[in-house]
Amino acid sequence: MNEISALTERATAATFYRDEMTPDQMAANRRIVDISAACCLEAAESPNQRLAAAFAHDRLAGYVIATRHAPDDLELDWLMVDPAQHGSGVSGLLMQAGMAWLGADQPIWLNVISYNARAIAFYEKFGFKVEPLATTPHVVPHSIMRRAGAA
């Protein structure tokens, strides 16, 4: 479990922070690290969630949690990848695993930190588009991205 928290710490440090963040926003980002291991364990045990992990050189390289909230409410809930693995293909494999479990031909949604341009561009490669009018209750600004199902 420490390895999950450590990877989440590295991933969030690389992409979740900005200089002008408030203390509340920094605490919200820290909470992601604090709950990551428990969320992975819960996902591994839940019939409505799927945890997939990737390893490189016997070390955790990343993980994804996909969640079926309801038959028509499918979310790519977590995607965390070690920054050392950015550009290696790990993120793409994890996305494919999460989408396959949810049903790649189904409408899927996710949320992303609004200023994380790298992540937004990555998700766009998989057909996700920012929903401009969607709002979230997060302290750190998030955007909802949706991918339409097959017609």
Short recap of the structure:
With 151 residues, the chain is α+β, with helices and mostly antiparallel strands. The protein has helices at 2-15, 23-45, 90-102, 117-124, and strands spanning 49-56, 59-70, 73-81, 108-113, 129-130, 142-147.
Q: What keywords describe this structure?
A:
alpha+beta, 151 residues, three-stranded antiparallel beta sheet, 38% helix, single chain
Characterization of the model:
- It is a single chain.
- This protein has 151 residues and is an alpha+beta fold.
- The protein is 38% helix and 28% strand.
- The strands form 2 sheets. A 3-stranded antiparallel sheet has the order 1-2-3, with helices on both faces. Strands 4-6-5 form a 3-stranded antiparallel sheet, with helices on one face.
- Helix 1 packs across helix 2.
- The termini are far apart.
- The model has no long low-confidence stretch (mean pLDDT 93).
